[in-house]
Amino acid sequence: MINLICCIKSHESFSRIYNTFKDDNNFELEDFTEDFEKVQENITISQYDLAVVDEKLLWKDSVLDLFNKKDIKIIIFKGDFRKTINDIYKLFPKLEEAKELLKKEKPALKLKEADNKEIKYILKEKLVERKVKVDVPAYREIYKGIENKLIIVTSLSKKAGSTFLSINLAKALSGLKIRTSIIEPPIDRPYLFDYIGIDGKESPEHDFYSYPHVINNGVKPLRDMETIIDDIIWIVPDSRMDTVENWDSLKMMKLLYASKRAPISIIDIGTNIEHESIDPILTSADMILAVINPQPVEIKQNIDRLETLLNFKKEGYPVEFVINFCNSGINRKVLSNYLKISPSIFIPAVNPKYIYKAVYRNKIPLDYPEVEEQLFKPLSEIIKNIIPLGLFKEVLKDRSSYKDSNIIHRLKEKLLNLKIFR
Fold it and tell me: Given the DSSP bridges, would you call strands 227-229 and 232-235 parallel, antiparallel or unpaired?
């Protein structure tokens, strides 16, 4: 079934295309869409395969950008109905044959290579994603129809906790069935590859595909080569390979869009907010989380970086300051004076025992109930600004995939009753 949306300027032109396909059971059609806002609303609940866009639309550029981000195939309508209809059928010339072959027990053994490629595109939601073998169950049901979001996580000082926040936030989102990708640009020594223990979790059939190295070598990345662990896509450099040199803004943009399987992307840049490759992605960020170690000496020794972050916030960038390692010994009034702002997100100091447990087992700290108990509130403060409220309520109400003992199930129960989500 091909889900087709037509963004056509006039009702008459739309009707002519619609009537051509309305009796074809291979196509599922959307009603006439009058504005870009309606498309944005529909795309949160529908998974489109193909879009026909009128070149005369006033909001053409906006809708093309949205469809490209969602990896939706596009045909531009230039007033020639016959050509447009032929172009649509050319994309799916053997749809009926493909559907019949897919009903057989082992179609992959009987299809030619060209046919196989075509079926993969026709029924792309049926693609089997390459997952590495892990000790925890993978959540297969995910919400894909949400708006793409880019979250940049940075640190004021070394070891302030940008990676800690990135991986735990991704874990919470994936547990809520929101697929997330973690992106680690090669501007520091690779860390996450070893932290997650990817070298010990590789599938015998597939070597790890290091997107940063592929892009740095000037090669166009292959599709569907992502490594997925805990239902999180890991776009990180392979620490076993040579260090990447001369990472620039163009390479960064290519890395950012190398994978399109997750609506939420979290990019951990550490203390590199001023790196030349970071500047072009700042304007695309939906949230910039600046993690701060609240010790006064850490703030004083990095005052220039703090001023940079404060200036970004004044200029309208979505910067939010996150205080890590919070405990009763911190004087919040004095801290606010140091920072010249009043932070709203505070992450409590987690018992090091659980941090070390996670590290030694290549796990994310949120896997432990004791850590989840501490982190659910600050994480929820962030999540509420990422996920549309209506969809978030729907996610929280659906508990069918989780057991009572599951960490995220308990997180969902608490969030459902949390006032900030009402």
Answer: antiparallel
Question: Tokens in use for 415?
Answer: 């969030």
**Do the domains 149-421 and 2-92 match in fold?**
yes
Q: pLDDT tens, 54-111?
A: 998 989 998 999 999 888 999 999 888 878 887 887 777 544 444 344 344 333 333 3
Entry pTM = 0.64
Domain ranges in the chain? 2-92, 149-421
Q: Are 244 and 216 in contact (CB under 8 A)?
A: yes
Tokens in use for 396? 């929280």
Instruction: Dump pLDDT digits (tens) for 249-274.
Output: 999 999 998 988 899 999 999 999 99
Identity (one letter) of the amino acid at 289?
L
Superfamily of domain 149-421: P-loop containing nucleotide triphosphate hydrolases (3.40.50.300)
Other C-beta atoms closer than 10 Å to the C-beta of 56 total 13
Query: 2-92: what fold?
Result: Rossmann fold (3.40.50)
Whether 183 and 268 have beta carbons less than 8 Å apart is answered as: yes
